[in-house]
Amino acid sequence: MKLDDYYDKPVEASFVLSFRETAGKDDFTFSVNEEARTVTLVNHLPFDLQVKQFALLSDKGATPPAVGGSVKSGASLSVPLPQEHTGLCSLIDSELALAGTIQRSEIEKFIMVQSQDVQTTQCVFGVNASGVNFEARGISQIDVLVSIRDLPALQVPQFSLVPLHRVDRAIALAPLANAITTLQADILFTVHHSDPARADAKFSLSHEFMRTPIFILNDGDLGAGS
Q1: Number of folded domains in the chain?
Q2: Is residue 141 part of a domain?
């Protein structure tokens, strides 16, 4: 995995992230009911799991693998108790029970990011106003202020666009967890005119900077009154 940011040297890690496959021994716990001759498997994870197959292992060997089905968070799955079950344990192959693709804004529901040496990373917040007709609209300057919805304390430096420099950006340090999930922002544009008698015009647009670091400002975004 490579963390794409704007440092000179890349930060690299030799592992592959999979948001569908689950790992670890705490997904399911099981209990034995001798009277009912059943084994109850309980899903302790905060999301539903699809049990592809499972088997019970004892000192006498393993039961034939069986298809499990979907088990909701906090729900259980009951299977027959083997005749010989001394030293019983379970072998479960499962994955997240998802209806479709995991959206970037939902990733934090399925993973937890913990960082030590790298806690923040540089993120770019750019605006391309090449399509804006500064001359016809009598615009001298457009000020740009970016606010990240989930990070109100994050200060993104304000920058300005002018007829001779219509593309610019600001760089700010964002928490690593946000930099790989979502940077949904509100962009406040303040339009200044060449004619000092004309009042400044303000309008806001939204953009996801994690997906696309540069927002394209079109001439039509300014409206007829700017």
Answers
A1: 2
A2: yes
